[in-house]
Amino acid sequence: MQDRTSIINEINQLKKEKNAVILAHNYQRKEIQDIADFLGDSLGLSQEAVNQDADVIVFCGVDFMAESAAILSPEKTVLLPEKEAECPMAAMVDVDSLRQKKKEHPNAAVVCYVNTSAAVKAECDICCTSSNAVNIINSLKENDIIFVPDKNLAKYVSLNSTKNIIPWEGYCPTHHQILVGDILLMKEEHPNAEIIAHPECKEDVLDISDKVLSTTGMTNYAKSTNSKEMIIATETGILYRLKKENPDKIFYSGSEYAVCPNMKMTTLEGVLDSLKNMKHVISVPEEIRIKAMKSLERMLEVGRT
To answer: Which residues are annotated binding-site positions for iminosuccinate?
Structure first.
């Protein structure tokens, strides 16, 4: 069995040989974050893939993230090291069920969180992220909005918009592990700490939070704030990055149970095997890719206006 140093050395060698770049989500294992060329959220990493002069994209994340990279960079080979790394929330909405919902609300616009499959994106009018969801919703002319798949993000949007939000009954199981009682106990122990929550958390957690931010919002805020202590209500993997980038500040997990098992499937050995054997290649059928691309492009266009 190879030791960690030799695995990393071989990964770096294969990256050069194959003109590859490694992208890792903020929730990945710390050793995966350490070997990544870029860290970030799902959409930001996919956009980074577009900008890179690379032939191969190794996406250390879950299935829909690699699909997004394949949608935006069809000329590149996108690899997902662990093929079983699926997003359970994305799996809570399927094309047939969404089409039925659209029939029930024929005048509604359909907005999908980026945490959805390419096939679902292809059925939607526009995508959104956790950071721009409110702006995207408010930019639409329609009053009725079908929002898939995260009911918690839908609720957060509804509290910040006059639109009629029709939520899907999906959710992130990991963020559902974050309980308001645990946050309050942590606050008692650390009364000077700010509470920073991801909008995938339940409403009662958001209600007691000082800031509601995406993972990119969290990393940016941690650098800019004068606060020295923060309670972070999202998947625990981001704490490694926060501590690494802000050694003068203290970060506490909102819940020790907020661990996404699918995000943690990716290992150094898996990345090495992926590069060595070019697996697992993620591709999107062209008809679906073009339609899904439109929903992503429309979102990006709103961001430019």
So the answer is: 25, 42, 113-115, 130, 198-200, 215
